[in-house]
Amino acid sequence: MQPYELSLTAAADAIRERRLSPVELVDSVLDRVEEVEPQLGAYVALTAERARREAVEAERDVARGRYRGPLHGVPMALKDLIDVNGMATTASSRVRADHRATADSTVAARLGAAGAILLGKTHTHEFAFGLTTPQTRNAWDRDRVAGGSSGGSAVAVASGSATFALGTDTGGSIRVPAALNGVVGLKPTYGLVPRHGVTSLSWSLDHVGPITRTVEDAALVLAALAGHDPRDPASLPVPAADYRPGPDADLTGLRIGLPRNYYFDHVHPQVETAVRHAVGQLAAQGAQLVEVDIPMTRYIRATQWGLMVPEAGAYHERTLRTLPELYQEDVRILLEAGELMSAGDYLRAQRARTLMRAEWARLLEQVDVVAAPSVPMPAVGAGEETVDWPDGTTESVSDAYVRLCAPANITGLPALTVPVGHDAAGLPIGMQLLGRPLGEATLLRVGHAYEQTRPARALATAA
């Protein structure tokens, strides 16, 4: 096995035990970037020389007993909405062509303090306002979409061109590309991870979180990211914690909600089969399955878009009026649509969100975790704009991919996607776990327990 193939946890153990140097790991991952990047297009910008310098420093620190923890000397990538001092934050848009960050975002600073090594910035759907990331190709099939908007981050992790990465999630933008590329994606509780220095799409829906190869890896990254920051008004006054799941895969006494409605409606049959099989594995590990009804489903789509579109429009108001030609057409149309929404529409969406949160809180009194598909179908072909369902209905690809992820953004609940197999074409399928506010430890425990039932996953093969 080459160093670039190692999970974060395995690489951290090898570095701590002096069986692997950060220099060897960074060189291996950069060699992998050189090999696969021309085919996949995950990165906006690479910081190879900086990464090599930091790897030498990390190797020296570890040798002198100044080991900072499991992220020390491990190479990572950041979605290009996340500020790094002195670097461009382009948001994959011509609007940001001349932008340079003058300070680190909170998450970049925390990862740097933990010793993680930046490889570069990854592509996003322009300003994170989309679900495909068209500049980037799926790590398993280059003719398929990467998913969005954190498509570059997911593809980098899935292909071995980053050991871990950060994404952002406003309507599924961590979980969708993670599921479509066969990796782990965690959207934390709203406010657990600070967003200071991260370009906003929709302030009341935005989250920052890790994309990794294993659930344990996600726990290690979350521990470095979480914690209060007064510069983010939504940041929760809770301390960071140790989220790492224990080795015990026994789930006896845990109640897993299996939706009777919504989450298995208009879902590809191979996705449903894989997810239900994975839930069966959790039951075999002792979990109790409880059928549940998802509340207020008829309002989910309207509430998601009713919050996101006007908030995005407000953020882009000045540049949309002065530089509209610099936006990609799909994003410009959505932003212009936001200008047509009334204050009453937005307030009704906020009211629906409040009611939805209360109903989900009641649901999560009955169960500890809800298990469902992450997305309704595997990665579609690049350029495909709609999906046809057997009942004769047609749905846009973006609506389909956001549909099963939106409830966790509206309510702010934590949600984790884990790979649970592949379809007949070899494309990954993801299972989503949703939990109570600040219930990340439980989600990670369940996801990790499921991983113990499967052999170690190989890297993607499209490159």
From TrEMBL:
Annotated ranges, domain Amidase: 24-444
Xref: InterPro entries: Amidase, Amidase_CS, Amidase_dom, AS_sf
Record's keyword annotation contains Transferase: yes
Pfam families cross-referenced by the UniProt entry: Amidase (PF01425)
Molecular function in Gene Ontology: transferase activity
PROSITE patterns xref list: AMIDASES
Alphabetically ordered keywords of this record: Transferase
Record-linked PANTHER family: AMIDASE AMID-RELATED (PTHR11895:SF176), TRANSAMIDASE (PTHR11895)
Protein name according to UniProt: Aspartyl-tRNA(Asn)/glutamyl-tRNA(Gln) amidotransferase subunit A
Organism: Kitasatospora viridis
